[in-house]
Amino acid sequence: MKKVCYLVAFMLVAMLAVSCSDDEGSNGNRDNPNNPNNPENPNNPPAESGWKQLTNFGGSQRNGTVAFAINGKVYAGLGPYNDFWEYDPATNKWTQKASYPGSGNNRQYYGAGGFSIGEKGYVGFLTEFWEYDPAANEWTQKNYHGDRFYFCFSSENKAYVILDHMGSFWEYNPATDQWTQKANAPTVGKGAYMSNKGYLININRCWEYDINTDQWVGKSGLQVHIPNICFVVNNKLYVGSGYNDSSRKNDIIYEFDVEGNKWNNKTSFPFDATSSANIVAVIQNKAYIGLGGGVDFWQYIP
Questions:
Q1: In the predicted model, what is the mean pLDDT of the chain?
Q2: pTM above 0.85?
Q3: 30 and 82 fall within a common domain
Q4: CA 28, 33, 38 angle in degrees (round to 5)?
Q5: Around 189, how many Cα atoms within 13 Å sit in the side-chain half-sphere?
Q6: Residue 202 has pLDDT above 90, yes or no
């Protein structure tokens, strides 16, 4: 009987030892793609969808803000001021960066536009075009011949911009710092890039631009007269804020089904974004959106 008890006790100790060893090894090897503690593990559940309020924008409330993402951080600023800010999702904090050095219109920058390519950001306003380097926190003036940004989106290595109210459409190559004229756009508005195509939305219409063929094609219209934000998450296009017509404000984000060529109501804004939501940047399939009627800043996961 004693031998049986000793044998059972020995087996229990051995099992506990193996269990502790496995847990320690699992936690200590977070780079293992099968480790549940590794955020890149494909078996982990996706982040919860919906809205999450973040730290308020570091500057003051404003309209006409320029925003883009570089290396996992959001950069935003301008409008009525030349200040420029960095948001770090890892710390949920805003840090003021070097101010935009370009000329303003009575020290205001309404109508400025911006985009990012690789590890640099670009801002154009009036007759000036500047490159921002986050690593050095420096601005460098670049080649430009436009009036203002009326629409823009960037692909992996080039940007596409409407540079006047007549729809003059240009491609910018940062490697050569040169602009190449493309087929005129049918209108001006907001837009985004998805699967080698750009999408332009305005006046209840949507157009698709094919980078390879340099052609515009009309798509299904959207009942948002003048949207304020447009972004892409998980290869889907989202549009929101602005007005449904000249007087009725829109507080809905719409999702565009490219294959079905139709729009679906996706969600409503949790803050007053109907007239002036103008910060939007996407990092790791999460959209960062502000400012609304104040300095609100939110994360949205479709």
A1: 82
A2: no
A3: no
A4: 55
A5: 26
A6: no
Phi and psi torsions of 81, nearest 5°: -130, 170
Instruction: Give the bridge partners for 66, in sequence order.
Output: 77
For tokens 């436009």, the residue is 146
Instruction: For residues 59 and 62, give the distance between their C-alpha atoms in angstroms, rounded to a whole number.
Output: 9
DSSP H or E stretch at residue 23: helix 2-28
CATH code where residue 176 lies: 2.120.10.80
- Domain of residue 28: give its range: 1-45
243-to-133, 179, 226 alpha-carbon distances in Å: 35, 33, 6
Residue carrying structure tokens 């004229």? 181
- Could you report the per-residue pLDDT of 68-104, keeping only the tens digit for each? 999 999 999 998 899 999 999 999 999 999 999 998 7
DSSP string, 247-262: S-B--EEEEEETTTTE
Instruction: Residue count of the chain, please give it.
Output: 302
Contact 83, 94 (CB under 8 A): no
Same domain, 249 and 123: yes
* Secondary structure (3-state) at 172: strand
What is the rounded (10 degree) CA torsion for 206, 211, 217, 218? 0
CB 170 within 8 A of CB 163: yes
Each residue's pLDDT tens digit, 123-148: 998 889 999 999 999 999 999 977 77
Cα separation, 150 vs 261, in Å, equals: 25
